[in-house]
Amino acid sequence: EEEGRLEFRYDSWKRQREAALRRLEEIEEAAARRIQRALRERRKSIESVRSSQLDEAERLKRQEARRQQEEAERKRLREEAERKRRQKEKEKEEQRTHAAATKIQSIFRGRLVRIDMRQEQQQKQKELQKIRERAALE
């Protein structure tokens, strides 16, 4: 009987021990799953941060490229405006030069006309004088 009780107690202890070991394994497996899940979430978080940093870097790179493009466009427009301004100044200078040349030509033409008229008048006066002299001689 004592042996039966000892055997029963041994079997009971053995079952309790196996149950405790199974429970310990379950706890370890649950802990391992929680650790794995935490590691996956941490990796996702790191990847998300890395991705957002890459996105930010990409956004900044595009923003800088856009800024450089806008600056190049502004420079091109300034140069074009300056070129047009110089062209207009050149045209105005040409117009002033042409106007001055035209004025000088008209002044010279006027003087030449007056000189011609004076010479003609002097010629007519000489002829008139010769006619008077002939008339006085006759």
Could you give a short account of the major beta sheet? Answer: none
SSE arrangement, N to C:
H
Relative strand content? under 5%
Structural Rg: 58 Å
Description:
This protein has about 140 residues and is mainly alpha-helical. About 100% of the residues lie in helices and about 0% in strands. It starts with a helix and ends with a helix.
Provide tags for this entry.
rod-shaped; 1 helix; mainly alpha; 138 residues
Topology:
Layout: H1 2-137
Brief summary:
This protein is mainly α. It is 99% helix and 0% strand.
